[in-house]
Amino acid sequence: MSSPQRLQRPRGILSLPLEILHQIFSYFEKPQEIYTVATGSYVVENTEELHEKVQIENNRRQSIKAARLVCRLFNEVASPLLHVCLGLGLDQESVDFVEHLSTRPSLAKGLRHVSLWLDYWPRKLALDLRQFAMIHQGYFQQRCDLLRRLLSTPLNINPVSKQQLHFYEEVLEAWDAYFDTSNYNVMPRNLFSYQQCLLNGYENYQQRHREQSRLLAEGSFIQKITASLVRMPHFNSLLLSEFNRLSRDYSPSPGEEWCGIDWLGQYLRVPLRWERIEELHAELVPVKILVDLPVALHRAGVKLTELDPTGEGSRNASSWDDLSTSCRELKKFYFAPYEPGYIQGSIPLEVLSADTRATINTFVSAILSGQCLQSLHLDLLALDDSGPPRNNSDTFGEALATAQWSCLKRLMLSGLTINQEVLGKMCTALPDNLEQFAMRFINLKSGVWSGALDILRDKLAARCMQQSCEVDISGGEIGWQEVWEVNFAWAETHSRWLESWGFIGQKLITDQLFERYVSSAGVGKIR
Q1: In this structure, are residues 480 and 511 in contact, taking their beta carbons and an 8 Å threshold?
Q2: With 0-12 CB in 10 A as exposed, 13-18 as middle and 19+ as buried, what is 17?
Q3: How many Å apart are CA 451 and CA 454, to the nearest integer?
């Protein structure tokens, strides 16, 4: 007689406990790649790396989708992995959606990251149709001037540019006529349609302003978002951005066919950037969310490990100590106010008010007080703190000098002005197991570089030689105009020597020498 053990059916994957199936499918989960692709926060050196990240995410999602089709059990286990990122706006629709999602445990448990886009429609423009029109007329006039210059060149025969110019001129004429009808007895039909588009856009603007005012005045936005996220057991990553970088740009290039009533209607729905709102001296009410939401989440029991605020912080924060406490367990922090690449030009740091500079300093200092940071990226390039040394006050100087970074693995600093003492203390505090170190466009307000470079060499050289640490030092004092001229003029006449010594022509020789000294790659120690 056969034993019961022999009669048992062989155990297959569907017989495994649910906990083990979750562990198996968790190998498809790559939070860093997911976060990068979902938010557009690409910190990459080239487009190949960007495409690679996108492809990784696409392949991951395709594998999960295929697994869901196998059976009901696989569908139950794999579905949450398709909903790890959530994008929200400052509106009632987002509040309703996240509340509904939080009541679906099977999906809520998959959420890891939330991107909150703080697009804002200020009261000042909602009360004044004329100013609303003037803001956009100024942009259209700039486009007209650009297109006229392009069309005046002998080689420009692009019919699209002519079409765009005609469109902008008609819009300007129509809107001027709306506020001054003395030049028209009968309004041409096409001009009337542009006026109607203006009124529709203004009505939409007012509706959005009223909705946001209600959510912010009642305090219900932060309360309801927090209450919903508390029910997401694995949520730990938050992006707070002043704009949605994935769907923001409605600005046509000179050769693109972006004109007509449909495009104009879309364009008028796009909110202004925060720096543009500040130029109008309008109140930026949602700026408080940059501090208040992390604090509210902390008080509700949520432990954030990743925070990426791209605004400049709250000037009226009730307690900076609360923010510091909220971010005590933060592992990743990315800060780039007025991020370059998404705005035209930059804002000189000395132009910012003393209150704004103090706010930025306090905001970042509160977060840097945490001792669990593993990845830190501070980027002030958009504040134009680069080039030869200037008389800017030290930015984050005290915070950098006193930081305790025993867990830090990746550090990137861009666009800062600091003094020799702060730089030395910061380098001394760096852990010996650092994996990535980058200083770009750093200027010393006083002192010399040699001491800090020696400290970095002692800490990082061995790891660099083992290829366990990457070093990138460039820009700032090292790369301002006089050095550029010397470097490239010399490089053009000594290209063969450069190649034989392993230098690359696309990067300044001084930059490469600094990096080689720190990594101990063929450059002797300073005597």
Answers
A1: no
A2: exposed
A3: 5
Q: Domain segments of the chain: what residues?
A: 13-82, 331-352+372-397+405-527
In angstroms, the CA 231 to CA 108 distance is 7
In one-letter notation, the amino acid at residue 107 is: L
pLDDT digits (tens, 9 = 90+) for 384-403: 444 444 444 566 777 788 78
pLDDT band per the 50, 70, 90 thresholds, residue 338? low
Tokens of 48: 């190949």
More confident site: 301 or 98: 98
Tell me the Ramachandran region of residue 288: left when phi exceeds 0, alpha when psi lies from -120 to 50, beta otherwise: alpha
DSSP-assigned states of every residue in 235-303: --EEEEESS-TTS---PPPTTS---SHHHHHHHTTSPPPHHHHHHTT---GGGGHHHHHHHHHHHTT--
Run of H or E including 89? strand 85-89
Rounded Cα distance between 118 and 108, Å, is 23
Distance of alpha carbon 498 from alpha carbon 143, whole angstroms: 44
Distance CA 177, CA 458 (A): 71
Cα Rg of the chain (Å, integer): 27
Q: What is the pTM of this model?
A: 0.70
